[in-house]
Amino acid sequence: MARFFYKGRTARGEAVENTVEANSEDELASHLMNSGITPIAISPAKVAPKTVSFKRQLGLGKPKTEELILFAKQMSTLFKAGIPITRAMNSLAQTTHNEYLKEILEHSIKQLEAGQPLSKGLGKYPEVFPAVFLSVMKVGESTGRLDDAFEQLSFYLERDKMIKDKIKEATRYPTFVLVFLAAAFVALNIFVIPKFAGVFTKMSLELPIYTKILLATSNLFANYWPWILVSVALLVIGFRQYISTDSGHFLFDKAKFKIPYIGEIIRKATLARFCRAFALTQQAGVPLVQALNLVANAVGNIFVADRVNSMRSGVERGDNLTNTATATGLFTPLVLQMIAVGEETGQVDEMLIKVAEFYEDEVNYEIKFLSAQIEPALILAIAGMVLVMALGIFMPMWDLIGKMQ
After folding, report:
1. What pTM was computed for the model?
2. CA 255-256-257 angle, 5° bins
3. For residue 295, how many other CB atoms are within 10 A of its CB?
4. Under CATH, which number does the domain 171-405 receive?
5. Could you give the 3-state DSSP secondary structure of residue 207?
6. In the Cβ-directed half-sphere of 2, how many Cα atoms lie within 13 Å?
7. Second label for 77, Cα 20 to 30 Å away, from 92, 311, 333, 354?
């Protein structure tokens, strides 16, 4: 699409001018006439080079999920109050504190003034609005129920954010403890143990195995720390490069489900997200095949997306949803039975919501169970590290004191 600059007059005779996108001058003129603007002049717009801030290039400054939830709720409320869409968008653009979101809203307002639908303006920013979000909006525009569409989207985003927060909550504490243990281990080997190494070498004692291990690791860290840092950096870079490939990303997403304790939580949270998104598309009236394609891009896991695409292929061949879901091997028998009931009663969306709630309850239970199990394990790990350090350092001291006595 090209950008055009136009001048025109409204039905009241007011002069207006703007720069918008359109396929051709004739199409723009037709849109202007349909929106009550009589075009006077239309010409190709001069495109100035768009400068992108360094912050934007790093992917920073994007609207947070909370801001998208607030945006969807405000739009739903304004539509239900009978506020015109352009006026509603202008109001939100003036009150938002996120510069990126403000830019998006202002661009969408220009598209609306040129006769383009709202979903088309927001669709220019796929990094902010996922495919499911835009698809539900398109259905709302076609049915004239954008208020309901935004209400459904706000609820979906809230539940999706809740699941993500639960996973972060489950992994935050063990991650912090493990990082602290690693930092303490490195600090002891570089700064503490070398102080004792000089004393131990002057002793005519047979050092215990714990002390030998500590001295060996301390020597490794003290003398070869630049090589260790380079090796760790290369491993991290290599891993990131590997998971950036299609095959690496697929295997990494698949391996997430096999992590002890955490993997089952991630699997159930991902399936809850799938069921929520799928139910949302069904409530909005999106065709089944198109809905599966959209949801596959929205689950955030390539392994699950591959299974969802296999469901779509099965549906395209004429198979029912229950059989294709069974073939994936992702769902429990209870969930498959609920999907089958939904197909028989024509209430797949309601059954999927129940399935999502079932998985969300399971995630909450697994997180509580994980917290109860992992805390004793971490305490034992800390105690083991302290014990090895104490035995390695103090056992030679005790032997020396015994000989002196």
Report:
1. 0.65
2. 90
3. 29
4. 1.20.81.30
5. coil
6. 14
7. 354
Give the Å distances, CA to CA, from 196 to 166, 182, 189, 350, 381.
45, 21, 11, 68, 24
Using CA atoms, how far residue 172 sits from 165, 166, 167, 385, 404, in Å, is 10, 10, 9, 21, 49
Q: Is-contact 339 348, C-beta < 8 A?
A: yes
Q: Domain residue spans in the chain?
A: 2-44, 62-158, 171-405
H or E element that contains 219: helix 209-243
pLDDT digits (tens, 9 = 90+) for 194-245: 777 766 666 666 677 777 777 788 888 778 878 888 998 999 999 999 988 8
In the block, which residue shows the tokens 């259905």?
A: 139
Burial of residue 332, with CB atoms counted within 10 A of its CB: 0-12 exposed, 13-18 middle, 19 or more buried: middle
When computed from its CA atoms, the radius of gyration of the chain, rounded to whole angstroms, is 30
Q: What angle do CA 247, 161, 58 make, to 5 degrees?
A: 60
DSSP string, 318-360: T--HHHHHHHHT-S-HHHHHHHHHHHHHT-HHHHHHHHHHHHH
Q: How far apart are the C-alpha atoms of 94 and 215, rounded to whole Å?
A: 64
**C-alpha–C-alpha distance, residues 214 and 194, integer Å:** 10
N residues, the chain: 405
Q: Which own/partner pairs from 102-106 qualify as long-range (CB within 8 Å, at least 24 positions apart)?
A: 104/63, 104/128
Nearest-angstrom CA–CA distance, 102 and 96 = 6
- Residue 171 carries which side chain, given as an amino acid letter? T
Q: What is the pLDDT of residue 239?
A: 92
- Give the closest residue to 104 by CA, choosing from 90, 73, 125, 87: 125
**What does the angle CA 139 – CA 144 – CA 148 come to, to the nearest 5 degrees?**
70
**Of 18, 16, 22, which Cα lies nearest the Cα of 38?**
16
Domains 62-158 and 171-405 share a fold: yes
The first and second tokens of residue 28, run together, are 């723009």
CATH superfamily, domain 62-158, is Type II secretion system (T2SS), domain F (1.20.81.30)
d(CA 242, CA 248): 5
Question: What is the distance between the alpha carbons of residues 355 and 361, in angstroms, rounded to a whole number?
Answer: 10
pLDDT for the residue numbered 238: 93
What pLDDT digit, counting tens, does each position of 123-148 carry? 888 888 887 788 788 878 877 788 88
If residue 5 lies in a helix (H) or strand (E), which one and from where to where?
strand 2-10
